[in-house]
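hey team, just a heads up i'm posting the complex here instead of the shared drive bc the drive is being weird again. everything in one block, sequence lines first with there labels, then the predicted structure for the whole assembly after. its two chains so it's a bit long, scroll down
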Amino acid sequence: MYDSGKIIPGLIIFVLIITFPIWYNHGDAGEVPKLELPKDAKQCVQPVAEIRAKHMQLLNQWRDEVIRDDERAYFEVDGRMFQKTLQNTCMECHKSKVKFCDTCHDYTTVNPYCWDCHLAPVETE
Amino acid sequence: MDKKRREFLKIVGISTLAGLGAPAVFDRLVSGSHPVQARASATGAQGGAGGQQAAAAGHSQAAAGTGKRYGMVIDVRKFKQYPDLARECVRVCHAVHNVPHFPDRKEEIKWIWQTPYTSAFTEHSHYYRDEDLEQNQVLVLCNHCDNPPCVRVCPTKATFRNEDGIVEMDYHRCIGCRFCMAGCPYGARSFNWRDPRQGLDMNNLNRQFPTRMRGVVEKCNFCVERLGRGQIPACVEATGNTGAMYFGDLNDPDSEIRRVLKENFTIQRKPSLGTLPSVFFII
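-- predicted structure starts here --
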């Protein structure tokens, strides 16, 4: 092979640069997002583990029940009555989209289109 | 291989008979194994073919579901009596539902609006109209038809007829193809050419209700979200006790709207199209 003295070190340097993000961040998940939880509510509509893992399914289920099936009845959790709505139920307790929704969604690079139509609460700060 | 002409014709004949008879036998076998399904598909096919018959009969199959069919009566005379009332209805509706205002008529979004009598009732004779109809406009909105063409043409079922007879939009599913706008004979649908938030005062919204996004079609929803909370539609509420608008269940013979329909001569928009509108007008 001609110029193997240049090509092989060159290839090694290229691979090192390309894989830089992998080995540089190895074993480090970065800073875990810190959510601002509502101060005046202790209990979500579902247990924390469940709502954390499945809130998107729940929102889709609410959407289908309310719009398609016209099942708008309130439901009760720990003596409190809730409506099946993102805009008026979730955001009633979680008063800031930026400090709650966006922290995780930015961290995991997901862009849900909820807010194209639904109105996020007015950010106070 | 030595085939005689006679034998060849025999085989052809038997094959033809088998070919003609097989579908009938097959159908019988299939229907024998799934009697319910077969019957359902048979009635489905009948329903499809008999759509026009159903329209002519004056009620659709869907209406039989829960028995409810919401409808509206608009008394045009009352709107003449209270000249600002119609504008107030439009204002309230558009405020409650965050309907944007764009000055360019091509980008206009409207859920409820005023239109001249000649545009609203194209099938009625317009020769020598009386002065009132000449000068005053008619308040019109989505007719929430019993046989809605917009629902039939929607490729994603984004627009559908709910159990109470309300023709509703699911904006999550709308792909913005505008077939429904072509299908609607009343021009009750508007397309969001631009982000509707550009046409809204963002500090003065109804924060209980969403806006729409660019690229979806929108229209009146008969205040389905208010009905769910036990309220009446916003436009009807805005008319107060003037008696300019009535709202109720058309299938309930004891309802107020049926009483009004019984006591007054009413007309519907473009009745010959067979869409069976749920909005009636007292002229």
